[in-house]
Amino acid sequence: MASWPTTVKHLLDKALAPLGVELVRSSRRITDLHLYPDSSRPTQPRYINVGAGDFYHPMWHNLDVPNEYYAGRQRGRLHIDYDLSAHLPMPMDDDSVAVAYTSHVVEHVSDADVEFMFAEVYRCLHPGGYFRVTCPDIDLEYAAFRRGDAAFWKWPNAYGIYNDSVEQKFLDHFATALTVTHPDTQVEKCSDAEVRELFASLPMEQALDTLVARIPPHARQRYHGDHVNWFNRAKLSRMLRRAGFGEVYPSAYGQSHCPLLRSLPLFDSTCPELSLYVECRK
Length: 282
Fold this sequence. Notes:
It is built from 8 helices and 7 strands. It is of the alpha/beta class. It has 2 domains: 33-137 and 232-281, Vaccinia Virus protein VP39 (Rossmann fold); 139-222, no CATH class. Strands 3-2-1-4-5-7-6 form a 7-stranded mixed beta sheet. Helix 4 (166-172) packs across helix 5 (192-201). Residues 1-27 have low confidence and may be disordered.
């Protein structure tokens, strides 16, 4: 027989599911300070979270731009106003950062933005420094699309709307603006039949790139919560090696080689069911 808390959680989960809300027991209490050699947040950033959202840790510096999604929750947590798409150097010295982290950011920006970010992180890291990247794993999502597994995507889109078909659920996770439920009526939408035909006629990566290329510039600039890119382990690894990283290796939820990055749920907490984890060292 289920315990009372378990039964209550089940009922609440059932009631909240249509809203895209799931109850997760977690604690964001900071319990890892003994792992840091610093007594307070370093004046010069040594631990950086790129595209940090509302992340908070007393030793870390957050790099991000203010946005409506995190309105209010970023107050006091945005240490460095930094726009990846501007392609400006990060405000850190060469070889000065010990650990860098970015979670569910790269799918929101272009390949050129990601490559610039990776090159800047490499420049800023000191030799032996860690960089961890997590994002949606397109290989997992493509496999779910191929088998018609609509239940794989249990979340609504960025506008609180559930897409009905497997094709639209899949499309939402790498080319959001092309979905039929996207609010921008100036964007040419992609039908279920078009999605099926494209992936039947082209190799997976070519089909993905074709659809991403259809996202108009105004949609990329206006809808910051949209997904406009895709990644799998092979693509991330290629890009990290081009940035200069020689040691690039696959990881998994909570399995960082760096002890500082194993503090859950501070790290790796976003959608672990569909996430990809890649780590590297300078």
